[in-house]
């Protein structure tokens, strides 16, 4: 099967491409930036191309002679992400519908069980894109994932930085909602199943075996790092203010952080009867195991860090050997990132 991966150089894509190769797929890796296979360690089995998903001509050419498309494109680092993601989804859906593509797999986000008017802008956009892509062809699948556990994952890295930086962690009352994290290894397995199992269709939820409140997730990350932290309930804390504080105290892109924080006020758990179950192999990885892998230096599996991960997720090599406590290293990492951003204009 020849698979076109749109958004191949993002976090999931950088791990999915080698996973697909290992499982015998013919892979076309597409990204909006110029192809740089060497950055990701891809060999000549991967055909790397440049493709702007809002350009009908480019997308039409990219989907030629492929059997399946995996859509991993999200624009959370932009203030106008909803508009751009809508245009991109409509462009890809039209191209796929006019081609010979048999399967279309979209990595979406868990949708809380609340009226749509109450959804965050981030989740509402994911749902809109999902509906556009599911309507493209009969063989379309939307895999809805919540917090993806793995070094380099945006949601996980934000949680890890907060858990490390603050000795005392204020927890707003509205952040006591539940989340069902999933290890990135299981996301890759689910994509593989969605590509080959024709019985899978529509929206399918991805989650690990553990359902946990956000403050407890912070505790799991702190415990894996060997850190003792105190979480203090805060009765009044507007989501906008919390998002701003998190954006200023982590190294993640500003719009990404504020958009994700807005989604924390609802339970993000899988729907009974609509949850992915592995077609073969072991059950989904437990939370403690997944976090342990993600926080183990030089871990070689998908949960481990890769040199191609965004620079904001990586601690400077010098800080790894400086004799500072964890909170000091976290603060130094944040300061180093801020200075580098100013000097580079990014």
From TrEMBL:
Pfam families: NAD_binding_10
Database matches in Gene3D superfamilies: NAD(P)-binding Rossmann-like Domain
All residue ranges annotated as the NAD(P)-binding domain in the record: 7-110
PANTHER family xrefs: NADH DEHYDROGENASE [UBIQUINONE] 1 ALPHA SUBCOMPLEX SUBUNIT 9, MITOCHONDRIAL, NADH-UBIQUINONE OXIDOREDUCTASE 39 KDA SUBUNIT-RELATED
The protein's name: NAD(P)H-binding protein
